[in-house]
Amino acid sequence: MLFATKDMMISLTILWLVLVTPCSSAFWNTHNKIKTAVYYSPAIELGPGSVSNKFYYDIEFPRGHIALKVFTAEVVDEAGNPVPLHQTYLHHWVVVKYYESKSKLTTNTRYDLHRVLHVSDSFSNSHIMKRNSGICQGNILGQYYGLGSETRGTNTDIPDPFGIEIGNPAKVPEGYEEKWLLNVHAIDTRGVEDKLGCTECRCDLYNVTVNAYGIPLSPSYEGGLGCCYDQTQCRLKKGFQGPKRTLYLRYTAKWIDWDEYVVPVKIYILDVTDTLKISDTSSIDSSNHDCQIEYKVDPCNSESKKDIECVDVKRTRLPMQKGGYVVYGVAHQHSGGIGSTLYGQDGRVICTSIPNYGSGDEAGNESGYIVGMTTCYPKPGSVKIFDGEKLTMESNYSSTTRSRTGVMGLFYLLVAEQLPHEHRT
Ligand SMILES: *[C@@H]1O[C@H](CO)[C@@H](O)[C@H](O)[C@H]1NC(C)=O
Ligand SMILES: *[C@@H]1O[C@H](CO)[C@@H](O)[C@H](O)[C@H]1NC(C)=O
Ligand SMILES: *[C@@H]1O[C@H](CO)[C@@H](O)[C@H](O)[C@H]1NC(C)=O
């Protein structure tokens, strides 16, 4: 259940400001100004060891026909101070677009989806989820934005003259409105016995044997989102007590008004667990995708690999039905990740994204956590994916004497189907 009503949600949006700064690009007409707004999610209540994984519907979001340029976020406390990951681990947040019927009979109905990463197509008759351009099955990984612990240190800027088009009234189905859904999954690790284990959602630490729907988990399932759902509790050190806290996801959007000079980019998210079977003869059918979102890194057999650094390499080969020019790329990994690369069919590197680990204590530099991912900004036009090209995605983790559970290997790509000079003809 969500504890926040819509009214609370609005009143808890304690800050909303729009700054207008001139746009520096000579490409654009000078009337097009970058606008910035800072918003707060509804309150997230967390006690030591507890998990919050909630879905906030109809969140504050930029409105109008615009091009999104930047989207950043961080977890803050009631005073607005950044909260470090070793206190509250930000497992993920995602922002999803949906259309809501204006003639809704269901104003106060909440569709408790539990896991937005797994939003089903049967959202309801009054809601239509509008996923990104692909490439997982159904609505899986259909978000526009979303990151995890690396949020503070990962660049999301979209270079000029590109942008993510939203709010185009011509694209909203008749009788519907465009809305946005935010899912925040946070784990309070103050006082827990095993911080890394809690962030890896190890089932034994959560004392969980059934999933969020009450269905028994397979005994071979050691950990992952199935064991750290909303309201679960990770094991604390004996006798630890700490106060409950009220936190928020503070998110910042930057955008410009849409005009004919903005070149739209499409959003793709590739998942290294996608087991799509491709043969060279069969046509590509997107329904054959099978993104699992998470996977497990097996322990390293140190006996047999004495001198070799133990690296777990996971690969998958995925066709892109439609290609284009890569404008931006970034991978998503969890602790233990050491980098991810996307290769073209001929083996050329499309993008390599490497995690940065913190080495201190303060928010944004937490030792042992991924605090940022490097990003790719190829010179527009220089990195092209061809229609139907089969890409290879590779996600590397260091492996240790114990398994890593619930790890991820995603690649988020922004692709322009035209270049600026082509776009304006
Ligand atoms: C774990 O769960 C079982 C069954 O739900 C319960 O009996 C037991 O007390 C729990 N253990 C802890 C440490 O919470
Ligand atoms: C991942 O591992 C493979 C195989 O060892 C290696 O060729 C590749 O360079 C690694 N990539 C990254 C980003 O670490
Ligand atoms: C992180 O903290 C360490 C230890 O205090 C410090 O040496 C390092 O410069 C910090 N890094 C950043 C990016 O602030």
UniProtKB/TrEMBL annotation:
Residues 1-26 form the signal peptide. The keyword Transcription regulation does not apply. This is Stress up-regulated Nod 19 protein. InterPro entries: Stress_up-reg_Nod19 (IPR011692). It holds the Pfam family SURNod19. Keywords: Signal.
